[in-house]
Design goal:
The chain is α/β, with parallel strands linked by helices. It is built from 13 helices and 12 strands.
């Protein structure tokens, strides 16, 4: 188990959960993924009577589809709760959150040291809650008939700072690829997906060539690659699923063969290192308000795993969601990740 896997296991404080699939058996790719089991209503989080108020949420574009779907489902039984939803990226979301301007922020990576200092400076205490597993999809234009799988080293060749102005044709990535121009699309520097991808692929968070087409909008990235026969880009897997008729999904070979992201390969830790847990951070003072407490409990309820699935992400194991719900109930603040970038292996719940 990697140090980062140990960190996430430590967050859970439950020894039966092993991340990175440190199990004796090899996962069978032909079997269906085991998502959180259904629970009885008595076991589910009970949000109590209908509440009212306004909840302000910002942050990651990767987390936003889940939050939007959760808010819509929550309003069905709490019609007097209003949601103000913004998408500023993980970094932008932490800026507004730590400035005490929002109640909840979505994050596709853990909070970093600079953001922790800003929160402390402004007296903002936060509760860190993992909410799902996500994979990063690497995609090309549908007209691309030569690229099906890229090695991790080839992705590094494409995206490392030394590639800027130098790696501009497909045949520079692999000699068998055609001699035709290369156009790159990716999240901007405020994105947690940008932070995670650069760390996982290049080896250093924020270390990337800058001569690509950046955007804070995943929809704009989809449209960019879909409209350019020479395009290649990356973003959250859920955005690929929503636009799979427009794009071609690539597999990634990190040393154990070519693997495409899917709910199965994200959950069983085969799609590494481009699979990760994603988070929401709840301001502790906001969590004391009935509407924020009720919505966050609803968000973490195992009975709502189907909402995560419908969006295109992978639900956390029930035991993980319950650990998060207990953390919320206790009002336990701070981060378990030390404020530095980490490639976090993910896996399914393993029980004795």
């Amino acid at each position: 188990m990697s140090f980062q896997s140990w960190q996430l296991s430590r967050w859970l404080a439950v020894p039966v959960v092993v991340l990175g699939l440190a199990a004796c058996s090899t996962p069978n790719p032909d079997t269906a993924v085991s998502f959180p089991e259904a629970v009885t209503q008595a076991e589910a989080v009970n949000a109590g009577e209908a509440v009212s108020g306004t909840i302000v949420i910002d942050g990651s574009s990767t987390v936003h589809p889940i939050t939007k779907a959760m808010s819509e489902a929550f309003k069905e039984s709490n019609p007097d709760v209003e949601f103000e939803l913004e998408v500023s990226g993980t970094g932008g979301g932490f800026q507004t959150f730590c400035a005490d301007e929002t109640d909840i922020t979505g994050a596709s990576r853990p909070i970093n040291a600079e953001e922790m200092a800003l929160c402390e400076q402004n007296g903002v205490e936060y509760i860190e809650l993992p909410i799902a597993f996500d994979g990063l999809a690497v995609v090309v234009n549908n007209e691309n008939d030569f690229a099906a799988c890229l090695k991790l080293s080839e992705l590094r060749t494409l995206w490392e700072p030394a590639a800027e102005g130098q790696v501009t044709n497909w045949n520079q990535v692999r000699s068998s690829f055609p001699d035709q121009p290369l156009s790159l699309y990716g999240p901007d520097t405020e994105s947690g997906t940008y932070d995670y991808f650069t760390l996982a692929v290049v080896g250093e968070e924020g270390s990337s060539r800058s001569d690509y087409a950046p955007s804070e909008s995943d929809v704009a990235l989809v449209e960019g690659v879909a409209g350019n026969p020479n395009g290649l880009g990356y973003f959250g897997y859920a955005y690929y699923l929503a636009n799979q008729d427009k794009l071609k999904l690539l597999a990634v070979d990190s040393g154990a063969g070519c693997v495409q992201p899917s709910p199965q390969t994200i959950a069983d830790s085969r799609y590494q290192p481009l699979a990760r847990p994603i988070f929401i951070y709840v301001k502790r003072s906001a969590a004391e308000r009935p509407e924020v407490q009720a919505f966050t409990q609803f968000y973490l309820s195992p009975t709502n795993a189907n909402i995560v699935l419908e969006v295109g992400d992978v639900p956390l194991p029930n035991i993980t969601l319950r650990a998060a719900a207990n953390r919320l109930k206790r009002g336990e603040t701070g981060t378990k990740f030390g404020g530095s970038g980490a490639v976090l292996e993910v896996g399914r719940e393993q029980l004795n």
